[in-house]
Amino acid sequence: MRVSILNSLLYPLAITMSLIFACAAQADIYMYIDTDGNQHFSERKVNSKYHLLLRSNSNNPPPSFKNWKEKTYSEVQLPRKKTLQRKYHPLIVAAASKHKLEPEFLHAVITAESSYQHEAVSSAGAKGLMQLMPVTAERFGVDDPFDPEQSIYAGALYLQKLLKEFKSKDLALAAYNAGEGTVRRYNKQIPPYPETQRYVVKVMEFYRHYKKNLQADTHSTAVISYSRN
Asked: Catalytic residue among 104, 113, 180, 195, which?
């Protein structure tokens, strides 16, 4: 729930980074995302909450900041094989029930984020089924982001908090992808970031599919069960 560190930073980050580069071309850049989803930058590691964003030896931003996970979602498709989907379905249902989410919504996010690959890692360091960035994993008490149970429960809790604040699935997804602070800066509108906009559309497409087809997709006589105390 959802992040080394680049959960969307296009215009605000690009402007901030350009100012930083102009003032300190040879400085390392650190970033900290607070509990409200706001981003803070520094030329040094102020405390353990700050994580390295860019090193001074390269110290150039990527050609474009897609989102804080440095991922593209244009080619993501529904999984053809349902084995992993069925494997994690009981855990997804349990986490959704605990955090008052629809299982279909949680399935849709996992499909877009990792396609049910629990060892997935993005180029920016987002990890696991829910593609938690390190700061998000730390925020929600995740010790092992590759552990399916920890990842799904943390991602579900994060989505619950986002839905509570932003009151809609579209905005919650935009915040999961781009960070809460980014959505707040755009007056609780979907930020004008192409990848974030595509992400929201893609996940909602998956959600509508699962609303109609989840029972058929996840039906199996050999489902692995999970429990959480």
From this structure: 113
